[in-house]
């Protein structure tokens, strides 16, 4: 985890209410917090006004919408032009940015993919990570909040994940094929950079 010296060009005045007005009508993917359920196209303004709420602990991952990924770069280009990415690179890779906003208690369950990093703009995001050879115990349709409340307390210390909490302006690098899950401790605005 790194607290960057560079800064985020959009962070000044960037809060969820301002974000909604900054990109009126922009579409995006409201993805269920479940790996096999397809994303739903939702206008950003509609997501912020109607769906951006704290996580219901009883709600399944397939019924939880999370605004992240699949940003149309033609529509979102003006927003991404203001992004000053952290100066981290892996030789031979190209960055792909993904903007997100989510309510408190929401998150994505354990999954893995290629390397990248995530930066929090507003709010706080808790991360849980396991190396590739240590598959976490979880149900794919259980939200991270439910996992934290029910499974996490039963884990022996040797089976607990690596953890950290990102605050505005902090960045976490996630290595290739590392298992990770996230939990938004507040309403959070964030951007992830996938290196492929």
Automatic annotation (TrEMBL):
GO molecular function terms noted in the UniProt entry: cis-regulatory region sequence-specific DNA binding
Domain JmjC, residue spans: 62-196
UniProt-listed PROSITE patterns: JMJC
Alphabetized InterPro entries for the sequence: Cupin_8 (IPR041667), JmjC_dom (IPR003347), JMJD6_ArgDemeth/LysHydrox (IPR050910)
Pfam family, one: Cupin_8
Coiled-coil parts of chain: none
Top-level taxon: Eukaryota
Gene Ontology CC terms: nucleus
Name under which the protein is recorded: Jumonji domain containing 8
Source organism of the structure: Cyanistes caeruleus
Gene designation: JMJD8
């Amino acid at each position: 985890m790194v607290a960057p010296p560079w800064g985020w060009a959009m962070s000044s005045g960037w809060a969820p209410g301002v974000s909604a007005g900054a990109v009126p009508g922009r579409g995006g993917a409201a993805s269920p917090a479940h790996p096999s359920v397809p994303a739903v196209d939702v206008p950003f303004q509609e997501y912020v006004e109607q769906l951006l709420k704290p996580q219901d602990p009883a709600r399944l991952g397939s019924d939880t919408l999370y605004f992240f990924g699949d940003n149309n770069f033609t529509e979102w280009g003006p927003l991404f032009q203001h992004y000053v990415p952290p100066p981290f690179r892996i030789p031979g890779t190209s960055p792909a940015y993904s903007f997100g906003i989510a309510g408190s208690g929401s998150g994505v369950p354990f999954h893995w993919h290629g390397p990248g990093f995530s930066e929090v703009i507003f709010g706080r995001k808790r991360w849980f990570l396991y190396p590739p050879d240590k598959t976490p115990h979880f149900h794919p349709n259980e939200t991270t909040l439910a996992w934290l409340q029910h499974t996490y307390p039963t884990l022996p210390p040797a089976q607990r994940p690596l953890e950290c909490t990102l605050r505005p302006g902090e960045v976490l690098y996630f290595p290739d094929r590392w298992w990770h899950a996230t939990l938004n401790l507040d309403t959070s605005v964030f951007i992830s950079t996938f290196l492929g």
